[in-house]
Amino acid sequence: MKRTLLAVTTLLLAGTSLAQTKTLTVYSGRAKTFVDPVVQQFERQTGIKVNVRYGTDAQLVAAIREEGSKSPADVFWGNSMGALGELAEEGRFTKLGTALTRNVSSDYLPDNRAWVPTTVRFRTLAYNTGKIKPEQLPESILDLPKMTSLKGRIGWTVSYPSFQDFLGAMISKYGEATTRQWLEGMKALQPKDYKTSNVGMLEAMRAGEIDVALTNHYYIQRVNRLSYPIDTYFFKNGDIGNLGNATGAAILKTTKNSASAARFLSALVAKDAQTFFLSVNFEYPVIGNILQPTTMLPYSDVVKRSPRIDPTVLPKNIDKAQKLLRDAGLL
């Protein structure tokens, strides 16, 4: 009996040791700045080694498709709902349990629980406070092309995933014809395209090259720490220009490390990681009881400003959005 107990104990300890030395592979569309500290803390707490492959959402989605059942990825950590939704639509993710998602806000949690939101950001209009007064700006982003006084003074980042998600959401709400008309109207104002560099765009605003820019709220919060003459303008409640968009993470069906992958996702929505994302990047947390800076609108207020777009519908319009950009000669 003692020998049996000793053998079982040895096996249990060996199993624990093996679990702690497992390696997890994460494909991350999120930048290393926001990923590394969380990964390092997870490794310290669990003993699980995490290998991260970085790239754009588009690059990683393409890689997962090409690799198929042989993909080494255990977790996909996406930068936008569009990319997450594309892979979910293809059935590449496992359904997440309620234990993992129960403390997460339901605002951006997909009904099928194929992925879990990790942060939320909102589209907005940045403006130079020395050149523009908020009362001069339109109530709806649909009316921005009418602002002929801003010709040559508008910045945007048409290659950036959040911009393309916003355009896909516009298609979802208003259709392709209205979206095409909006793009043509904007093109007539000769906006300056900063590709994917929102930071570069706001630096250009500081330098006086542009007066307004379509961006995510947190970029403005970050430059506010440097006392730039830039502020946030939200359109009227429910306007597509205030679109809320989530980053998120999912577990691939092809993983052989589902338990470790689930632990990693749980860490991303735990208080430590959520506080880090807010403090470093000013992204809204997806769990409650996280103290926000006074320079940010409370989540309960800003979420009301965003239109409600089904996250499972959005991915179907990303290709359409990209085609409209190409047809307009903008991509």
TrEMBL record:
<keyword id="KW-0479">Metal-binding</keyword>
<keyword id="KW-0732">Signal</keyword>
<dbReference type="InterPro" id="IPR006059">
    <property type="entry name" value="SBP"/>
</dbReference>
<comment type="similarity">
    <text>Belongs to the bacterial solute-binding protein 1 family.</text>
</comment>
<dbReference type="GO" id="GO:0030288">
    <property type="term" value="C:outer membrane-bounded periplasmic space"/>
</dbReference>
<protein>
    <submittedName>
        <fullName>Iron ABC transporter substrate-binding protein</fullName>
    </submittedName>
</protein>
<feature type="signal peptide">
    <location>
        <begin position="1"/>
        <end position="19"/>
    </location>
</feature>
<feature type="binding site">
    <location>
        <position position="219"/>
    </location>
    <ligand>
        <name>Fe cation</name>
    </ligand>
</feature>
<dbReference type="InterPro" id="IPR026045">
    <property type="entry name" value="Ferric-bd"/>
</dbReference>
<dbReference type="Pfam" id="PF01547">
    <property type="entry name" value="SBP_bac_1"/>
</dbReference>
<keyword id="KW-0408">Iron</keyword>
<dbReference type="GO" id="GO:0046872">
    <property type="term" value="F:metal ion binding"/>
</dbReference>
<feature type="binding site">
    <location>
        <position position="218"/>
    </location>
    <ligand>
        <name>Fe cation</name>
    </ligand>
</feature>
